[in-house]
Design brief:
It is a multi-pass membrane protein. This protein has 314 residues and is mainly α. The chain has eleven helices and three strands. Helices cover 75% and strands 3% of the residues.
Length: 314
């Protein structure tokens, strides 16, 4: 703990409640999730790079999405795993806390922008298939991805800077497993109401703003699919969007509950559950969503495994 006249130079993370035995069980579970997440998303990136059948805008974006999933889970999970192994509270320096919060928010914002771009890509593929290669050319794809990354990292500079301009003098104990912004604001002796309102507006602009092209695109996509005369044609058209749509529902659903609210300092238990969905479950599900429901990715994986197996046998 700290005096009421100073600001924190380090924070203590409470992590998860329960006994040390429970912490070891959680460590084992989250370590498996993290390992599968790294391996699955890395496989997607490699497959997209090496298989010529996947050299298209859809899979180019998917490769970047998988990279973002690796980044967002790596920012959070290793610190969380280390805390589960340590008895008592885990300390994290102010600089590390700033870095962790910035990377977490920046990567998440980049992911929102990329999901919006992927929705537009699916709209062009379904609604304007004859012009798809002209509209979604390599230059356009590179420009979209570059803008998404730049927007994600530049847009979170001020929110993180503003968060750490407050004086954290109530305590230096964060009731979380990482440097969560809501829990940080709880420790401030300053009036954070205006800052929380501004952060709420920014969350609306970023999340709802990136969700809008997704909603509009899928409105046109569904309308176009319903006009296809044959059931097999409708099924084939929908299959090209099913993986992306599933990921959008999971990703946006959890983030809307966590960030789009006027009061940032809600219950720690609520924060922890939703943060686990974002940093552990969604990155873990990404490889399964985009492989089990995508025939091209499955074929590419099978071909690469068949090529590797003879080498292993030899």
């Amino acid at each position: 703990m700290m005096s009421n006249l100073s600001s924190a130079t380090e924070f203590c993370l409470l992590g998860f409640p329960g006994s040390q035995e429970l912490h070891h069980i959680l460590f084992a579970v989250f370590f498996v999730f993290y390992s599968v997440t790294l391996m699955g998303n890395t496989v997607i990136i490699v497959i997209v790079c090496v298989d010529k059948r996947l050299h298209s805008p859809m899979y180019f974006f998917l490769g970047h999405l998988s990279a973002l999933e690796i980044f967002v889970t790596t920012v959070i999970v290793p610190v969380m795993l280390w805390g589960l192994l340590l008895p008592g509270m885990q300390t994290i320096s102010l600089a590390a806390c700033v870095t962790q919060l910035f990377l977490y928010l920046a990567v998440g914002t980049t992911e929102f922008a990329l999901l919006g771009a992927m929705a537009v890509d699916r709209y062009v593929a379904v609604c304007n298939p004859l012009r798809y290669n002209i509209i979604m050319n390599s230059r356009t794809c590179i420009w979209v991805v570059t803008v998404s990354w730049m927007f994600g990292f530049l847009s979170e500079i001020w929110p993180v800077y503003a968060t750490f301009q407050f004086t954290f003098c109530k305590s230096n104990v964060l009731d979380h497993f990482f440097c969560d912004r809501g829990q940080l604001l709880k420790l401030s002796c300053d009036d954070t109401l205006f800052a929380e309102f501004v952060l709420f507006l920014m969350a609306i602009v970023i999340i709802i703003g990136s969700l809008a092209p997704t909603i509009i695109s899928y409105t046109y996509i569904i309308s176009t699919i319903l006009k296809i005369p044959t059931a097999s044609g409708r099924r084939k058209a929908f299959s090209t969007c099913a993986s992306h749509f599933t990921f959008v529902v999971i990703g946006y659903g959890s983030c809307l509950f966590l960030f789009v609210k006027p009061k940032q300092t809600q219950a720690a238990e609520y924060n922890k559950i939703v943060s686990l969905l974002i940093s552990v479950l969604t990155p873990f599900l990404n490889p399964f969503i985009f492989t089990l429901r995508n025939d091209k990715v499955k074929e590419a994986l099978e071909d690469q495994m068949n090529r590797c197996c003879p080498l292993v046998k030899d």
